[in-house]
Amino acid sequence: MNRASNTSHRILLYTENNVIGGVDTFITTLVNNWPNAQDEFTVMCNEDHVGYQRLKTKLEKNNNHLSSHNFNQFYKYSRAKLDSTNLRIQHKLFVSIFIILRYLNFLYLIIKMSRFFKRLDHDYLIVVNGGYPGGDSCRAASIAWRRAHKSRPGIHSFHNFVAISPGFLKLIENQIDKSIDKSVSAWVTVSNSCLESMSLRKYLAKSEKKTFIYNGIDNPLSVTEAQIDKFREALSFEKQDQLILMLASYGTRKGHKLAIDAVSLVIKEIPRIKLLMCGSGTDSEISTVKDSIESAGMTKNVTALSYQDNVQVLLASSQLLVVPSQYEESFGLVIVEAMSNHVPVVATSIGGIPEVIENGVSGMLCQPNDPREMANHIIKVLTDKQSNRNLSENGFNRYKQMFTADQMADAYFKLINS
Q1: How far is Cα 290 from Cα 59, in angstroms, rounded to an integer?
Q2: Local structure of 35: helix, strand or coil
Q3: Distance, CA of 304 to CA of 105 (rounded, Å)
Q4: Which residues contact 190 (CB under 8 A, 6 or more apart)?
Q5: Three-state SS annotation for 180-199
Q6: Potential cystine with 145: which of 125, 134, 184, 391 (Cβ 3.0-4.6 Å)?
Q7: pTM score, two decimals?
Q8: Strand order in the sheet with 364-366
Q9: Tens digit of pLDDT at every position of the chain (418 positions)
Q10: How many angstroms separate the CA atoms of 368 and 254, rounded?
Q11: Burial class (CB in 10 A: 0-12, 13-18, 19+), 33
């Protein structure tokens, strides 16, 4: 595709996000690699997002802006109240009130955002939602955009699986889904597996506007030996230690326990092994993982850190990436990041991961409940030099063929201009 154009458009990218991770990376990659340099992006992100400042520094081009919104304030306040309501009767009462007020607030959001979008007067809208239904303000934005600008294209993208509607809310949720489907020019998600989950909701299943576009990433930055040495020294890793890396938010679905259990088996054959886990999470989620490390007697071999922004250095310092996800892994962007850095990957065969990894060719796949199988794959990759070399090279080739930033941005550009 020709990546230059004489015409320009103003594009509004709207998101509501609460976790530093793949959605932020997607946004910055899409905006910074947009084919038409004349187009102007306004990225609107909730002001309480923990990654807001990071997002701001990553949006490189001068004609792009990051602005904050507080359209998610009702949910934020209600969730805080719900979490602080301990008595069972009070809890049930508050949940009932919350549900009623939530949908009333949803209608209010549509009206408020419609007026807001009219004032902004952009040409296109791209909503970036975590999962679906995801953020209420993301769904309201798609409907509000159509009310404000009937003939202007709007895309609703989501980056995790669709959740089924609870039975007692199905009637209301169906109407919202139907309204969004009428409002958008396209639904976009990140894998065929994720697309298939749209069948769980009536009007999403019926939609003829749905498609998927694989995520892509930028070419990796070069990392010096001095950077690698400094990083390993800071964590007291010695030269002969082989480093296994896990980059994921701290939550049950990401499978930290599987990684810990697998590495506990690996060290019986390869004693000089270190597992480094990095990601964002609540204090409770991080504490749970650290308890698992202690229970397994692995405190000398496993380190759990908070989110780290130096992904290139982490990957360049590692011999292997593990992705032990248990469920709801729609794509696995970190896999592509590893592939682009010639780092072999061992992952579980769930969700969209098998669309990214060709088992035994560009990575190794295992069952999500089998630490022994994961351990065997890790041992083979770390001890069989030819296998390691083949996986690394094939993984890099697959990244170049299917998952580059230009390929992703071109696909979105073509879709929104079709």
Answers
A1: 34
A2: coil
A3: 39
A4: 159, 212, 213, 214, 215, 330, 331, 352
A5: HHHHCCEEEECCHHHHHHHH
A6: 125
A7: 0.91
A8: 302-305, 273-278, 242-247, 320-323, 345-348, 364-366
A9: 445 556 899 999 999 998 888 899 999 999 999 999 999 999 999 998 988 988 888 886 667 889 999 997 776 666 665 555 555 555 567 677 878 889 999 999 999 999 999 999 899 999 999 999 999 999 999 999 999 999 999 999 999 999 999 888 999 999 999 999 999 999 999 999 999 999 999 999 999 999 999 999 999 989 999 999 999 999 999 989 999 999 999 999 999 999 999 999 999 999 999 999 999 999 999 999 999 999 999 999 999 999 998 999 999 999 999 999 999 899 999 999 999 999 999 999 999 999 999 999 999 999 999 999 999 999 999 999 999 999 999 999 999 999 999 999 999 999 999 8
A10: 10
A11: buried
Residue type, 193: S
**Residues written for the chain:** 418
For residue 90, count other CB atoms closer than 10 A to its CB. 10
* 308, 337 contact by CB (below 8 A): no
- Retrieve residue 322's tokens: 């593990």
Taking each helix axis from N to C end, the angle separating 405-416 and 22-32, rounded to the nearest 10 degrees, works out to 70
Give the type of residue at 137: S
